[in-house]
Write a structure and sequence with these properties.
By secondary structure, the chain is mainly α. Helix content is about 35%, strand content about 10%. Bound molecules: zinc ion (ZN).
Length: about 70
């Protein structure tokens, strides 16, 4: 999908679906250490503590802002 973004000349913050559950919804820091357990997400970068499901939902909703643009090309 990256090449489409290059063609569209748009800034891309692509989040791999497999990494969404471990990506900080505040700053986009991705690390498997962020995911403390099935339900707990604690960012090792900024220290944000949040429910893992809610964090993933926020991360996905931000990513989905870009995806319709890319898929439409
Ligand atoms: Zn963070």
């Amino acid at each position: 999908m990256s090449y489409k973004a290059a063609l569209a000349d748009v800034p891309l913050r692509f989040v791999d679906p497999r990494n969404r559950s471990r990506t900080c919804s505040a700053y986009g820091h991705c690390a498997k250490e962020n995911r403390k357990s099935q339900v707990a997400f604690c960012c090792v970068k900024c220290g944000m503590l949040i429910n893992a499901g809610i964090n993933a939902a926020i991360t996905i909703s931000r990513a989905s802002v870009m995806e319709p643009l890319l898929l439409g090309r």
